[in-house]
Amino acid sequence: MTAAEPEVSVLIVDDNRTVRRGIRLRLENARGIRVAGEASNGQDAVVLARAERVDVVLMDLHIPGMDGIEATRRITAERADRCRVVLLTSEVSDSFLVDALEAGASGYLLKGHDSDQLLPVIRGTAAGMATISPLVAPRLLRELREARPTPADPAQLELLTAAERRVVGLLSSGVTSNDDIARHLSVSVNTVRSQTAAALRKLHLDDRTQLALWGARNGLDRRDA
């Protein structure tokens, strides 16, 4: 670990002790990651996230007492210095995924299927990136595009330039990598990064997952690209 790579503190939340132990063993041997604690229920997760000032919480969905979504909502609301939460669950559900993202989760991974991505996801999440399991991302975006519950706020749309709307449109349609967005729009990757950052700042959103969610709900799909 170098000065440019600060240590990432992680809280593991799962009601299964064996699962917690397995995750802890993986993280304890990883460069630049420190396990700050474990919790078996939502209430303890909220308390420990605050007390230990952790960077990333790995949160199971179904835990005793306060469920993972409510715990996520409280953690992200209470931590002004931006503790980020990644749901790590076996539940493949469109409604749970939407609820998790609306609660402020920065990621949604499936146990087993996405376990090999755990370390890069933790590091990326601490740096402000967001990750949705490839198994559920297309379903989420399709549901949001079909639902389109309300039209976009014209004032919010006017905050974005036409170029920024095109980037958000592609992101909301499931084209999630900067390289792929740049290829679609025939621009540089640096331009995509700059336009994504500008959209996040203007809309007061925290990460790309929230930006994709906003774009899909407000109709900025690929027809704008």
Automatic annotation (TrEMBL):
SUPFAM superfamilies xrefs: C-terminal effector domain of the bipartite response regulators, CheY-like
UniProt keyword list: DNA-binding, Phosphoprotein
UniProt keyword annotation of Phosphoprotein present: yes
Protein origin, superkingdom: Bacteria
Domain Response regulatory, chain residue ranges per copy: 9-126
InterPro entries (alphabetical): CheY-like_superfamily (IPR011006), NreC/VraR/RcsB-like_REC (IPR058245), Sig_transdc_resp-reg_C-effctor (IPR016032), Sig_transdc_resp-reg_receiver (IPR001789), Tscrpt_reg_LuxR_C (IPR000792), WalR-like (IPR039420)
Residues annotated with 4-aspartylphosphate modification: 60
ATP-binding found in the keyword field: no
Protein name stated in the entry: Response regulator transcription factor
Organism: Microbacterium galbum
Taxonomic lineage: Bacteria, Bacillati, Actinomycetota, Actinomycetes, Micrococcales
